[in-house]
Amino acid sequence: MTKQCRILLVDDHALVRDALAERLMREPDLIVAAVAPDAKEALARVADSAPDLILMDIDMPGMLCFEAARRVTESHPAVKIIFLSAFFHDAYIDQALAVRAHGYVTKSESPDVVVSAIREVLSGGAYFSEEVRSRIVVDGSGLRLGAGARSRSATLSRREMEMLRYVAQGWNKKLIALRNNISVKTVDNHISSIMEKLDIHTTVDLVRFAIREGLADA
Amino acid sequence: MTKQCRILLVDDHALVRDALAERLMREPDLIVAAVAPDAKEALARVADSAPDLILMDIDMPGMLCFEAARRVTESHPAVKIIFLSAFFHDAYIDQALAVRAHGYVTKSESPDVVVSAIREVLSGGAYFSEEVRSRIVVDGSGLRLGAGARSRSATLSRREMEMLRYVAQGWNKKLIALRNNISVKTVDNHISSIMEKLDIHTTVDLVRFAIREGLADA
DNA sequence: CGTTCCATAGGGTGTTTACCCCAATTTAGT
DNA sequence: ACTAAATTGGGGTAAACACCCTATGGAACG
Lengths: 218, 218
Known about the structure:
2 copies of one chain form a homodimer. Chain A contains 11 helices and 8 strands. By secondary structure, chain A is an alpha/beta fold. Chain A has a 6-stranded parallel beta sheet with strand order 2-1-3-4-5-6, sandwiched between helices. The first copy, chain A, has a two-stranded antiparallel ribbon with strand order 7-8.
């Protein structure tokens, strides 16, 4: 018989979290060792629940899941991580791959797919839903966002990405300049190059893009 | 023994839909007669699945769930409707009450709460989660959004609400004026009064508000 | 029958944005 | 080492935005 697997399930919606937990517990070899409503709580439960695998929702306020995943892989390298999300934004996939996630399952998949993803990951493999897989390329050092996907937000430089977040937070150029100790002209130049790269020409559409791509909350 | 209840479950995320369906089917008196991934498909399944109750997610692209609910109550007045949502925006509650929904359960509730909400509604009652209930007032003609809640988006006039949606779509004042055959000055006045009512002073924050409140998609 | 809100429209003004030009220094990649 | 990009900063301009004022006709509510 297969060894049992302890799972830490993280989702802010009790409805989803508990329903999925009950589904997972119908599998004899899967044990939901703990559940958590956010990434912070999840970190706190890693030590005492001793999970073999963490199933974590991305769509939680604050977007702290990737930072939490990074910390877990540092302190508990053997723990596998599978992300869940309703979306497959480039920004999400990019960060999931950056923290060396073992899987990314979209919520358009059935619970059965989650179960098979878990088994696949436990046996040393990986599982990425089709929508996600289609944007990934494999190279020497591992998995990366594909060229097609990178043509959008992924081509923004680090500083440009930062500026985009500020804009989407509602900060105007003067405020962004102040808070970053740079010239308003520099902010202007950054935003102009962002707009050129994304072929967006108004602040409003820039904000909508950032929210749609999961770079900022509304 | 209680009569059995046929349920039509509508949610665009298979993960949630199927997991919840399995949970509901553990109750002997509850039958998931059909499931649908969107409001349109749900309408098509009402006739053949003959549900006693429809459990419908609000958070689906297009926001057609309220229109679908309206049509169902017209053609099948006996069918009860409970909405599910991760959010409890004024705009959502307002529309749910407008279509005479029998319940509104937030996704922060456990699946067990959904089950008891269903039973409550079946026995002639109603169920609204606490976050929703706290914004509702009862008057002679039924349920309405409370005064506190109405102090935000609910106090916007019909025309102002319309303008807000245009702004959140990325239209500038000139375009809004053109498409509505009114003066740019009029649009300007509408937007100014919206901003005054909401205590918002930039277009970006207006857009973020509209998206947050479910008045527009990002 | 007045008061209040709504929708319409205009004048005017200072601020902010979008985008054109240019250039220096630093960082990254091949 | 050389090239490309990123990051920084500036001048200038036309458009858009936020907001101040007034004003008229209609609908609503008591």
